[in-house]
Specification:
Elements (H helix, E strand, L loop, with lengths): L3 E8 L2 E7 L2 H12 L6 E3 L6 H11 L4 E3 L2 E2 L3 H11 L8 H22 L11 H46 L7 H13 L2 H25 L5 H22 L1
Antiparallel strand pairs: 1-2, 1-3, 2-5, 4-5
Helix pairs in contact: 1-5, 2-3, 4-8, 5-6, 5-7, 5-8
Amino acid sequence: MKDFVYIIEFGPKLVKIGRSRKPDLRVLNVSSASGRKSRRVWVSPPIMNAGDVERRAHASVGEFRGHGEWFNCPFDLAVERSSRLISEQDLWTDEKDDERSRKSRADFDSLIHHIFPSSSSGNKLNLDAEYRERFKREIFDRSIENYVSFLEVDSARGRIFDEQIALHERAVKSLDGLSIDTVCELIFLRALGSEEYLKATMMSGVYMGHVTENCMMVLGDAEKIPGMMDVIEQTARERLAARDMAK
């Protein structure tokens, strides 16, 4: 899937570094949720591995990290360090996207074959085995839907955090005699401890717990869960992207 990494400047030393399939819309959403007006915006070329590039961008300005995707860092410095991280291998192309889709389908087919092996004799499965196979398929599909729910809640959790940052920023700025570092720390701590953010964090954990439980029910082997989780995540992201496109 085609993704972008973006950097939004909200102040002389306040930026947000994230990723989105629709960066222009994301900038508007972040500005609206946080109550801040964006000053400048940098958007990367279309890339394939946005999650990996985003993590590397965060690490490149790690000494300025406030919390999550927020950094107390000059915009130009963040852009300079982040843009240097994007290699030719990271850039999105139609050919790379097709290859990833083929690999995803192959991984999916391989996992399905592993979970639901054909009868060695070629005879029709008995009713008990047929029931177990149908049950596993239903649980597997449920795990994908649970992961979709996790992605949706986790995205909402990010929006809630932005809103709480804006809310507590106004309250903390009314306090006199505090250094800028203390103000930033108080804002982040209050946002993290807000009831709304904690509820969203709890729900994201609940859905991820359901996914892990689904994997265990299908595989019966905890060591195989990471491999199944990779396929579930890719399938869930594709399913969610298709739903977004259909809206």
